[in-house]
Specification:
Blueprint (H helix, E strand, L loop, with lengths): L7 H17 L3 E2 L10 E3 L12 H6 L4 E4 L10 E3 L3 H15 L4 E6 L4 H12 L5 E3 L9 H6 L8 E5 L7 H9 L3 E4 L7 H4 L2 H8 L1 H8 L3 E5 L15 E5 L9 E6 L2 E8 L3 H14 L4 H10 L8 E4 L4 E5 L5 H13 L5 E6 L8 H13 L5 E5 L13 E4 L2 H10 L6 E5 L14
Parallel strand pairs: 1-2, 2-3, 3-4, 5-7, 5-8, 6-7, 8-9, 9-10, 14-18, 15-16, 15-18, 16-17
Antiparallel strand pairs: 11-12, 13-14
Length: 433
Amino acid sequence: MEFNRENNQYRLNRIEELYSLFLSHPCVSTDTRAICKGNIFFALQGDNFNGNQFAQKALDAGAALAVVDQKEYCTSKNCFLVDNVLTTLQFLATYHRRQMKDLKVLAITGTNGKTTTKELTAAVLATKYNVLATQGNLNNQIGVPLTLLRITPQTQIAIIEMGASHPRDIAELCFIAEPDYGLITNVGRAHIAGFGSFENIVKTKTELFRYLEGREGLCFVNMDDSNLAPWIDKLDCKIVPFSIMNPQEGVMASVWFDGQIVRSNLLGSYNAHNMLAAIVIGLLFKVDTTKAKEAIEAYQPSNNRSQIQKTAKNTLILDCYNANPSSFEAVFADFKAIEAENKMAFIGAMKELGDVSIQEHKKVLQQLKDLNLKKIILVGDEFKEGITLEDDMLWFSSSTQVKDYLTQNPVSGATILIKGSNSTKMIVLADVL
């Protein structure tokens, strides 16, 4: 994602022309259902849709401009024809980021915890700075440029979450966002089907470190992750290492720092590293540690990550936005430590594990058995293929079927862990629990 590729001058001229229009209409959209008057609509294409076909609809809905890459859909003077809408969106975002000379950009990636760490870090830095952070998990080749285009001249720090499911994903996002600082929360086993191997996962995540090394940036290194700690001796740039020196016990995550305990509303000891990372980043940016502590302790988790929800009938532990072998191992360890008489687990399958899917789902089943739970419900075909279920395990092909079952067989007085890949839609179970 450099401007010195082929057709450089033509591309740059087009970006500059588009950017002048963006300055008059500094709000972009890729969805005609979310058009506001004066938007610039980017007609993206995907495997199952062609945004070009909706360009006129966007203009009719009030968009000031529609960026298209198929000439037959350029039917209005308010259409802007380019060779590729996605790369144009990305180049425009990079160009916009470069205009903010005093802006500091922090990139956060990792297998687990990157969204929570992003939100904690944003809360800490917002006590002193004007901060913009990735909304939700808009952390891919579309989401990152959309986030960058939300930057204003008042923005002092932009926190950009970066996700990856294939080799070179992080490198590409770095070329788009051009971060000055970078944090990798951890490296675990996820999206193996896309990466091909765990070694490729490590290589891809650490593309952030290699990018910053080449740009004289600064890397925050989690020394408690065996895949990241060795980079302390490899990197030829500024490094801020961090490690949990005095682990704190308890159901809710807490961390010892600067002679005091910082407590959170986050379930799971694994969140202590996310908290510490936010504190360390705040310290580098000269945020008062008392302010950082207050920000973290006031943070309330959302998006079904590390949440405890008490209903009229049960206590629900909601960690059902995503799932991979590493996150299951961590959450099971914390669930085991919870003292409750009637513990259950409703577990959705993991996705994108490729050839190791059967093996990893067998491991999850063994870990579940070791928890000695009153009831285990499993969702997804991955828990059936090549696997013999125990007698005390119930299996359903979908969470909708489980919801129907629980409606007919209500559960009360239980502490229930609900976890699974987002596509399994385990969160629907909360409605009947």
